[in-house]
Every structure is written in structure tokens, then in C-alpha cells.
Amino acid sequence: MIELVEYIAKALVDHPEEVAVNRVEGEQSVIIELKVHPDDMGKIIGKQGRIAKAIRTVVKAAAAKEGKRVIVEIL
Amino acid sequence: MKTVEKQGKTVEEALELALKELKAKKDEVEVEVLEEGSRGLFGLLSKMARVRVTLKKKPEEKAVEFLTGLMKILKLDPVMNLVHEEDGMCRIEIKGKDMGILIGKHGATLNALQYLTGLVANKDGAGYKRIILDVEGYREKREKALKELALKIAKRVKETKKSIALEPMPPNERKIIHNALQGDERVKTHSEGEEPYRRVIVSLKYPPVK
């Protein structure tokens, strides 16, 4: 799941080398923390969070395959 | 990536030669001037201009590349087919095993994936191209289902004489609803709300046509 978030984020931003993804295991869910270069925040969130929402939708679909609840947090 | 180096009397001339060889237009390439070139004095000491010209990746190429990598991560192994539509759009058809997860509820995952792919494809590239994704003929099936839905809703509006709001849909799906009911003499359609919650409202035409 980390790999997926990292892959999508790196494809969207201008500073792919500054994409950092971290996985935090919760009791029932997994939290994926995504950090990008400050200038790239807009590219990862989008107008009214549209890009962030699309990333979450895709990640959720992939996670369902593994039967896990995944939350993507953008820091 | 394709790159050529050319020389000419001027930068323009060298670039011209390079574009000819690459069969590309100026906005499809990246140009690096290696040598400005100078006319010198009476033809003496003149220097040729040299340029290095690289063909930029087209949006649809970047789209396929992005999706290929994504499928690998998702451990899917589909066949992807790139189709150029007449109106400048590009359609990528994806077929294979376990494609259900790529579609999602009412195509939510497919639409999200299409949106992200479009962003990646058109990121600082050569020209803009709209990218449409389709999985196992889903778009066509959905279009048929939406047309049927539109007719059903129109019938109900006529019976109850009350407007009906459909669930929020992306622009292309709303268009299918609008088009399906355009020829109907008794109902009209319009959209309300802000993306991504914009929805079609089907209502009775006034005054009612006899």
C-alpha cells in the first residue's frame, strides 16, 4: 500500500525526491502518511481536495483486495 | 527517448533540420542550443550553430507508462490498448483478470484513476490531451444503464408531476442523461450544485405541451 501511494504521489509532483510515505498500523486500520515538498501540496490535494480524494479512492480499492481499511493522511 | 543533434548556419536552421528528421512540431520537442553559431567576418571565423533536440513524451505515452507501473503494483496483468479518437481524445482500454477493483461502485475507482492518469499525462508535457479510461467495456455498459435510468426517471416525473434529482455524477455521465432526454417534449433537464456533487434535475416542462 505504501508503494502505491508513493508511486501515485511521485507521478504527480514536481519534486518526486521529496515524497515521503510512512505507514502507521492502527488496530483496525492502517494509516498511510504522505509528505511532499511544500510547493507540491497543491498538486497532491487539488481544488477542493479533488486530487486527494481520487488518490484515496484508488488506494481504498486496492486495500479492499487485501481486506484492510486504509486511511491516507496528507501531512 | 529520441534525440538528434544537428548543425546549421543559424540555430533556426539547425532546429529546422532536426524537426524534419524527428517528424515533429516545435512544441513536441525540447531544444538545447549547444553552439549559438556566428557569422564571423567576411565568412571567416564563422561558426556553425548546433542544437540537440529531444522528442518530448506525448501525453498518451505518459498515461500508458503510468498505468503500466500502477498495474504492476496492484499485481494485475491486464492488456492495455490505446485508441485515438477523432475528437482529439485518447482512450485507453484495459482488459484482463480481476478488473472489478479498477471499476468500483458506479465507476468511482475508474473515474478517480482516469482523473489521476489525465493529470500525470498532461503534466508539463507536449500539448494537452484528454484521456479516457475504460475497463472491460464498462463505459458502454454504464452509458446504456444511464440512458435507461433517464427514461425511467422521465416517466416517473410525468406521472408524479414532481421534479426528481438524480444522484451526483461526473460531467460525462450527466451529459448522457441530458442527451437522452433532450428530445422529450414534456420534461427538461438541468444540473445543480458544485462538482463533484453536481447532479441532474429532471422536471416537467411548463406550460405542458398538449
Automatic annotation (TrEMBL), chain A:
Cytoplasm recorded as keyword: yes
GO terms for biological process, alphabetical: cell wall organization; peptidoglycan biosynthetic process; regulation of cell shape
InterPro entries, A to Z: KH_dom-like_a/b (IPR015946), KH_sf_prok-type (IPR009019), KhpA (IPR020627)
Record keyword Transit peptide present: no
Gene3D superfamilies associated with the record: 3.30.300.20
Keywords: Cell shape, Cell wall biogenesis/degradation, Chaperone, Cytoplasm, RNA-binding
Entry's localization field: Cytoplasm
GO CC terms of this entry: cytoplasm
HAMAP family in the record: KhpA (MF_00088)
Assembly, per entry: Forms a complex with KhpB.
Function: A probable RNA chaperone. Forms a complex with KhpB which binds to cellular RNA and controls its expression. Plays a role in peptidoglycan (PG) homeostasis and cell length regulation.
Assigned protein family: Belongs to the KhpA RNA-binding protein family.
Protein name as annotated: RNA-binding protein KhpA
Designated gene of the protein: khpA
TrEMBL record, chain B:
Name by which UniProt lists this protein: RNA-binding protein KhpB
Family per similarity comment: Belongs to the KhpB RNA-binding protein family.
Subunit (UniProt): Forms a complex with KhpA.
Subcellular location: Cytoplasm
Record note on domains: Has an N-terminal Jag-N domain and 2 RNA-binding domains (KH and R3H).
Domain R3H: 140-206
Originating organism: Thermosediminibacter litoriperuensis
A single GO BP: regulation of cell shape
Cellular component terms per the entry's GO annotation: cytoplasm
Primary role: A probable RNA chaperone. Forms a complex with KhpA which binds to cellular RNA and controls its expression. Plays a role in peptidoglycan (PG) homeostasis and cell length regulation.
Entries under InterPro entries matching the protein: Jag_KH (IPR038008), Jag_N_dom_sf (IPR038247), KH_dom (IPR004087), KH_dom-like_a/b (IPR015946), KH_dom_type_1_sf (IPR036612), KhpB (IPR039247), KhpB_N (IPR032782), R3H_dom (IPR001374)
Pfam annotation, one family: KH_KhpA-B
Keywords linked to the UniProt accession: Cell shape, Cell wall biogenesis/degradation, Chaperone, Coiled coil, Cytoplasm, RNA-binding
Coiled coil (residue ranges): 12-39
GO molecular function, one term: RNA binding
